[in-house]
Amino acid sequence: MGYVAIRGGGTAIKGSLEALEALRAAEADEGTALSLNTIEHQLRLLTSRILSEGGLYHPPLAALAIKQMQGDTLEAAFALRAYRSTKPRLLTTPVQETEGMRVIRRISSAFKDIPGGQMLGPTTDYALRLMRLELADESPEVFRGIAARFLADTPSEALPQTFPKVVEALRRDGLLPASPPGQGEPFDITREPLVFPIPRSAVLASMARAETGSLLALAYSNMRGYGDVHPTIAELRVGYLPVLLPHPVTGEPVEAGEVLMTECEVVAMYESDEAGAVPVFTLGYGACFGHNETKAISMAVLDRALQKGMKDGPSNPSEDPEFVVLHVDGVDSMGFANHYKMPHYVTFQSDMDRLRTTQIKAEQKKSAQKKGQPE
Amino acid sequence: MNEPSPSTLRRDWPRLLLTLPAHHFSAALREIKEQCQVVDLALPQAGLALLQLRDGALAEPYFIGEIPLARAVVRVTDPEGRQSEGAAQIMDDRAGLARDIAICDAVLAAGLAGEELIHALLTQGTRLRAQIDAERGALLTRTRVDFSLLDGVSEGNDL
Fold first, then answer.
1. Tens of pLDDT, residues A244-271
2. Which of A183, A255, A300 sits opposite B15 (nearest CB)?
3. CATH of segment(s) B11-135
């Protein structure tokens, strides 16, 4: 049996796309098409996820991808990546320092009195996981007044927009290794193939656009016991990072815009130094576009685990750069899993032929053994 | 409440102008383009930029992802023959918007004809920016943790 030609596939595919679109609009007369603004603001954490997994900070397009893919995060990230691949790259920014982030949330589980203080910001950390049934039938008037009331009820107190980083205080106290700023050119995962061993910058870039659940699963494996990172969050911050680019005429840094991002530094247990140096804590780092704390924390835990793996050799999967980096990308892994839906008629036909031949041989062997046996 | 004054620093102008919806520019820019000669010193472009950050653990640079970027460089000559070069690099998809902001930059930098129109835009942008900053500030002010209360109630029993 050879290649199986299919007739009528084109019509079926066209119909499937129309069926998909029909289900998107199945509310009919009662429905209203979602505006991108609504998705971007009311589903802001979902939008954040697509921004980071798509690897492109473009909130309106992330919202469009969510709408187009009907909430499928993997497909939405795929669409955003496909979009970015069609655009020319105009430049690489100078290194941006995240101390300049305009913070909306900042916490530490290492110290209560961090320089500048802790601000919980917008978080579900302390929310009861009980259904708020009143949201099921929310009046437009009440909805529109929520943000205005929040602002009106806020005392006018001018707090700074930027804050010093907690790890720098630990560094000054000699509890962390001194880290002179690295100068090397980072690895560009969008232009260069990953050939192992890879530099840490490639690991960080891969994890920054990794699928949240995949990062969480591997980090969880380490925290639960297949590893030894017991992290303390030195600082978790969410805020808007101004992107500064040199003015083409004056050369002076000018703000091109800002990027909402989440950043986390975790402190892990100190290591004794065989060379006799003073022992210090070790650090892990995580960051991603948008507001996604689970991702930033997971990335920081994995960064710390992978630093150990790269130094001493991996003793569990989460310390192995190849295992982690090649299995956390949502577009890659989703694509591989879903390609099994594509026709495999020829390979399966071959599998069946081999099975039937093996079955015949097994029957023949059995018969021969029976004949050879004494009655 | 006093009206905040717009920044006179060139590095702040794009940020303030970008706070405004693009259609706010159209009337002012139309007038300036009618009065002045605008020459593109580089083709206005829209595309992406690779965003490079420094990590907070080992201070190594890495790429977190890409951002949209539009840019333009122009020379503006006003009716009195005064010339100025202006430029813009903005996080946006619209090369035309970058060109408009580059024109504003050139006009403001040398006080060319139409400067007052751009100043009016900067004032609007400053007002909107202050509103955004107040909204973000409220997220901090309303959620600042006061650990002194914890110390007073349960000394040495913090979580």
1. 999 999 999 999 999 999 999 999 977 7
2. A255
3. 3.30.390
Query: Exposed (0-12), middle (13-18) or buried (19+): which is A158, by Cβ within 10 Å?
Result: exposed
Task: Sketch the domain layout of chain B as residue ranges.
Answer: 11-135
Residue of chain A with shortest Cα separation from B72: A248
Q: Is the ipTM of this complex over 0.85?
A: yes
A186/B63 Cβ within 8 A: yes
Given an 8 Å threshold on Cβ–Cβ distance, is A247 in contact with B10?
yes
Distance in angstroms (rounded) separating the CA atoms of residues B155 and B158:
7
Only one residue has tokens 């004032």, namely B123
A192 touches chain B (CB under 8 A): no
Residues B64 and A57: their CA atoms lie apart, in Å, by: 10
Whether residue A197 has a cis bond before it, omega within 30° of 0: yes
Q: Please tell me the predicted confidence (pLDDT) of residue B87.
A: 98
CB nearest to A259's CB, from B67, B90, B92: B67
Q: Which two tokens stand for residue A37?
A: 């603004």
Distance CA B57, CA A300 (A): 9
List C-alpha distances in Å: A10 to A5, A13, A14, A18, A343: 12, 5, 6, 12, 14
Nearest by CB to A104, which of B42, B139, B150?
Answer: B139
